[in-house]
Amino acid sequence: MSDFSIRTISADEHAAYIAAQPAASFLQTPGWAAVKSEWKAESLGWFDPANPAELVGVGLVLYRQMPKVKRYLAYLPEGPVIDWDAIDLGSYLRPLAAHLQERGAFGIRMGPPIATRRWTAKTIKDAIAGGQQPKLGDVRPDVIEPSGATVTEQLRKLGWKAPRVAEGFAAGQPQYVFQVPLAGRSQDDLLKGMNQLWRRNIKKADKAGVEVTQGGPEDIKAFHGLYVETAQRDHFTPRPLPYFEKMYAAMANQPSGCCDFRIYNAHHEGDLVASTIWVRVGGHSWYSYGASSTAKRDVRGSNAVQWRMMTDALAAGASVYDLRGITDTLDPNDPHVGLIQFKTGTGGEAVEYVGEWDLPLNKALYTAFDLYMRRR
């Protein structure tokens, strides 16, 4: 199989290709380049040499400059959007490496959207209760995805390397996520799949009169106020308001309608008690950001807004509702275990991806940048 050719494409070409796919990460849409405006960005397209007009893959590349040197780390978050089942992934990745090296990249990082293992909610719940396996990766999975091993083997043969956990320049996207499968299910199926606490809280919110509505750009400021309150309560550093204003403007107005981007608000007696950001690209939907008030926690606005996003994803034809990252800890004494317990209540599954892989193009500069990022 001969290698594909690769060149820069327009945002319109990029978005149209994404819109025609069954699913792709929202981090690979052209709008994400505008969200990450502090990085230089490029939309790339792969073309079949036998038919030069045929676009067969796309990728959003973000370039992070090395301090004091005009050389870059080229990053493709949760991408590129190519045929990962190809017999020879090198036909895509060799021209990618050559192109990015010409652009001044000293290394490439990418995140293939390929799952390796899956664990059901019951398996996770039993493992936490047993207390004998402190890490999710130590638990026997319910499903092993053969494509994960195939892609991993090909990447290693092509010279790519998997970053070591918690080492090197900070990993961009989580390797473990929690998802609720939607394909072939009804609302009743989803509700029955949840644990008793989730079902009770959804009913409690409804009985208390919590109203969930879809918002617009005018709601960004209110969302951010609640998000800052959540950050103070949960001890994390919040992103500034302009980041979310930029995100809404960039993601909600992309060419070809390749991305469905929404804000949801849960109100109780006029008070905003929860607010979230929801994204969908093809059959994949995500809970991207969430915030809730410290007051009125008892009306369960967070459960109500999650249920609304999940059912809207189902109505939109999505096959997956993705609650994004989880840590791999199952230690009952670890404070992070509460997050996986909350998400497990939805009745979904934990999914491990192959993770983010690196290809050093200039080993000396790659090592120097790695050390710089560790010191930061």
Automatic annotation (TrEMBL):
<dbReference type="GO" id="GO:0016755">
    <property type="term" value="F:aminoacyltransferase activity"/>
</dbReference>
<dbReference type="GO" id="GO:0009252">
    <property type="term" value="P:peptidoglycan biosynthetic process"/>
</dbReference>
<dbReference type="InterPro" id="IPR050644">
    <property type="entry name" value="PG_Glycine_Bridge_Synth"/>
</dbReference>
<dbReference type="InterPro" id="IPR016181">
    <property type="entry name" value="Acyl_CoA_acyltransferase"/>
</dbReference>
<keyword id="KW-0133">Cell shape</keyword>
<dbReference type="Pfam" id="PF02388">
    <property type="entry name" value="FemAB"/>
</dbReference>
<protein>
    <submittedName>
        <fullName>Aminoacyltransferase</fullName>
    </submittedName>
</protein>
<comment type="similarity">
    <text>Belongs to the FemABX family.</text>
</comment>
<dbReference type="InterPro" id="IPR003447">
    <property type="entry name" value="FEMABX"/>
</dbReference>
<keyword id="KW-0573">Peptidoglycan synthesis</keyword>
<keyword id="KW-0808">Transferase</keyword>
<keyword id="KW-0961">Cell wall biogenesis/degradation</keyword>
<dbReference type="GO" id="GO:0008360">
    <property type="term" value="P:regulation of cell shape"/>
</dbReference>
<dbReference type="GO" id="GO:0071555">
    <property type="term" value="P:cell wall organization"/>
</dbReference>
<keyword id="KW-0012">Acyltransferase</keyword>
